[in-house]
Amino acid sequence: MKFGVIVVLLLFVSAFAAHFLLSDPGYVFINFRGYLIEMSVPVLVLLTAVLFFTVWLIRKIILAPRRIGEAAGRYRSVRSGQKMTRGMIEVAEGNFARGERILARSVSTSDSPLFNYLQAARAAHLQRRDERRDEWLRLAYMNIPEAANAVLLTQAEFQLERGEHEQALATLRRLVENSKNHGHALALMGKLYFELEDWSALREILPRVRKHSQVEPAALAAWTNRVHHESLRLAADAQAIALAWKDVPRALKSEISLLEAYYEGLLRAGLHDKAEKALVAALKSNWRGPLVRLFGLVESADASKQLSRAERWLANHGEDPDLLLTTARLCLRNELWGKARSYLEAVISLRPTPEAYQEYGALLNQLGEADAAADAYRDGLGMLTAGSLPAITHVESD
Question: Which of 28, 202, 292, 358 is disulfide-compatible with 322, CB 3.0–4.6 A?
């Protein structure tokens, strides 16, 4: 409707102008450097219109090659995009080889060649063509240097997926050299160090992982816990144990695995009195089986007093297998063979463990019951090896 109104208005204006021009066509006189030009107004209007049309036409002719090139470029881009989409669909549907070929053919005309390279590398990876996968990544790295981190990260993820831990670690280290605090790279390095049990390397990068990456809190806590646990476990003397425990964050000092490692370190360093006092205080505030078990390994200066304390605990925790085992060990240390036997038999009836059978076997040997001791050792060994040994093929003798 709007177009129709415009046409009507133009017709009205044209008719109005024609009426005046025909009734009086006017007269135009131009004198320029001795030249005299005379014409009517309608002729001047017509010449002016012809001039504007000529200029417009010349401009269109001049711009035509560029417009044609742009149109051709748009067409190629659309075609390339269509090919890339088709290639991705083929890969998604499991036609990896066909998808790789389509992506490769469209890389030269693609608006985003990096995407083509990475998707072609993924298709090769899914075909287990690792050499070809690495070649696509190499081309992406060389031709699109600004995307170096993205290429290296993709390569590391492929290597991790393939179980190539050492190669992945080399790739990630190269990436971190380019970008020291790259969050995702640090997260992958942390995961890799944890799997490789490289605790010193994990310990070194943990501060940067906390600051720059978005690792799941549970995973980060597990990494931190394990790093401190190994530091305590490997501490060789009292000074090293003290430094390692001081380095543990306050929030983690109540973690049972770290407490165990700390008290075991104290016992390993011969600091039995210190370990005894610390264990008594810890158990008073929070009764926990692993700490009760460690109390039985303490070689106190007063073994009788230590046994009395354990027996007092039995009043409230008489069914605790860890406490019964600890009390049995303290009875052994005090040479109370009969009481030790009763406690060990109670432990085995409640919760048999290789540790309990070992103590029981040693006691039976002490009492001269060699056959019963052998049975106890065999039962304990059977618990350790149950399900882990292959069946022996029956061989008939001649």
Answer: 292
What gap in Å lies between CA 186 and CA 184, rounded to an integer? 5
Identify the helix (H) or strand (E) that includes residue 32. Answer: strand 28-32
Residue in the structure block whose two tokens are 């406690």: 343
Residue with tokens 């005046």: 20
Model confidence pLDDT, tens digit, residues 72-89: 455 455 555 566 677 778
Q: How far, in Å, CA of 111 to CA of 130, rounded?
A: 26
Going 334 to 340 to 343 to 348, the CA torsion angle's sign is: positive
Place of tokens 């040997």: 365
170, 185 Cβ separation under 8 angstroms? no
Whether the CB-CB separation of 55 and 63 falls below 8 Å is answered with no
Most confident segment among 38-52, 67-81, 317-331, 367-381? 317-331
Write the Ramachandran bin of 171: left for phi over 0, alpha for psi from -120 to 50, otherwise beta.
alpha
Structure tokens at 180: 């020291």
pLDDT of residue 394 exceeding 70:
no
Encoded amino acid at 359, one letter = E
Identify the DSSP state of 190.
H
Angle at CA of residue 179, ends 175 and 181, nearest 5°: 110
Q: Which residue, chain included where needed, has tokens 């790789």?
A: 100
Q: List the one residue out of 283, 292, 280 whose CA is nearest residue 325.
A: 292
What is the Cα–Cα distance from 117 to 59, expressed in whole angstroms?
41
Summary count for the chain: helices (H), strands (E): 19, 2
Domain range annotation of the chain = 304-384
Q: Is the pTM of this model over 0.85?
A: no
Hey, what CATH class is 304-384 in? mainly alpha
CB 239 within 8 A of CB 207: no
Q: How many residues does the chain have?
A: 398
